[in-house]
Amino acid sequence: MKVLANDGISKSGILALEKGGFEVITTKVAQEQVANFVNDNNIDVVLVRSATKVRQDIIDACPGLKIIGRGGVGMDNIDVDYAKSKGIHVINTPASSSESVAELVFAHLFSGVRFLHDSNRNMPLEGDTNFDGLKKAYANGIELRGKTLGIVGIGRIGQATAKMALGLGMKVIAADSFIPKVDIKVEFFDGQSITTTIVSQSLESVFKEADFITLHVPAQDGYIISEKELAIMKDGVGIVNCARGGVIDEVALVKALDSGKVLFAGLDVFESEPTPEMAILMNHKISLTPHIGAATGEAQDRIGTELASQIISLLK
What sequence ranges are listed for the domain D-isomer specific 2-hydroxyacid dehydrogenase catalytic (predicted)? Predict the structure, then answer.
């Protein structure tokens, strides 16, 4: 049987699939050619990340397809229900990248509270001529310890983020319409652990109470944060989105950054991805990454081996 990993797969995933008797093809096929490639090469399994879309047209055109796999959590680039209605298995790896995304959230938070994103732009330009000026400009940092982190969406990634926040000594609050409460277990290197319970509260109360807000939600029909929500937040709030583009009104966000209502933002995903707006890219109050939340070697190894395990279980 043949597997097309169109957006790539880790070496560990390839080895596991080959050991299970599968041929793995990692050729990058253009979106408009995916259906033809699948049919011409008798592909049984198509694996994607966020780049390749598997919509109804591909599903209809590929009657021999047995599995569609998503390396990651969100499945908004796959017509899941339609695929299942055609007898195709749809799989993903919801637990594999939680820690990697959570760490990126804190990379953006640390960058924002200590102005690292802006300092790293200006030190190469002015560090040798305006050192004291830059020192003064970046001298008003904020500690995360003791502050309140508001988590919107307390699923796997939200919980991983909560663990890191608790480890830093932050207060954690959350809003999730599907999870009324959750026990968070923070484990330490020596085998000790502590467990605390987070009870979901209203989205409005999270926005009002949080010093920093991080989003961990799937793709939405509308904005979770727009001008109305920004208005009720604390002055000087920090906002991080490592979830999905389109859940924050970027025009309203830039306006709030310019006015000082929002101290900084950290964005890994964008409304107009993969061509983010220049107003976002050039704003010195935004810490930027190009949708790399799950892009660590450890996460990709876990994703590859988990996909392989599911595929072998279903087809062997």
Answer: 9-315
